[in-house]
Predict the 3D structure of the following.
Amino acid sequence: MMEVARRRRRMVGGAAPVDYAALVQTRLAGTTGFVMDPSDTTLLWEESTRTTPVNANADPVGAQDSKYGTTLYRWIQATSSRIPASSNLRSVAYATDDFLGEDGSLGFYQSLTGMTLTVRGVITSLAAVNTLLNIATGASATSMRYGLSVNADGSVAQFARRANADGGTTVSSAASLITTNVPFTLQSQINFTTDVSRILLNGSEVATGTQGGVSGAACDAGAPLRIRWGANLSSANFLNGSLGRAVWSPSYLDATGLAQDRGYVEAIAL
């Protein structure tokens, strides 16, 4: 497997490279955190029924599983015309109205004092908002709990709601930070204890704000969650591009943790 091969590599005349996979796996052990890894074909199937494994470039990806952490999360697309595809067995390519999702009690965005999402991606069109991940408790705009997106002007934005009754908080960067067909790493963070909400792009902070709601209170989603990779909660603002590896850490990572997650997602070139 590709990951095993990478772990066994050694630099000529020098020390072994950092084993980011092992570091991430160890840190997520015993938590609700997880990894999305489209380079690991044992996690990908062509259909939502998980019948045919993905094993070639451009194969449809109708189901993708997570790995690491305590819980297996599964995202599917049962509508054949909306199924994304594998891109060189390195990322999942979304276009037009593709997305992977799941509706149910997925507890990774509940009772959190902090969270960090690290995701590797590339955008192929900036004609409209590109949604990377959306989390909601229903189908209406007022049910949206979390979202990470790239706007049409090339800025990046994070939306978060601490509790269902709270107003949402959006933090956005300056424009023209994202360029089409140029891979990037976004890291979205919220510290619900200190009310810090921020975004990093390729390791540098590009947006920050104060998370709304009751100061210091944990995130509390009071209903089953709707998860969408590549679309928002109303199945609009679709992603035109590809998503590589992603790491959901149920904590507000320090600089060391951020560097580990970034190193992990960037180990696979897009």
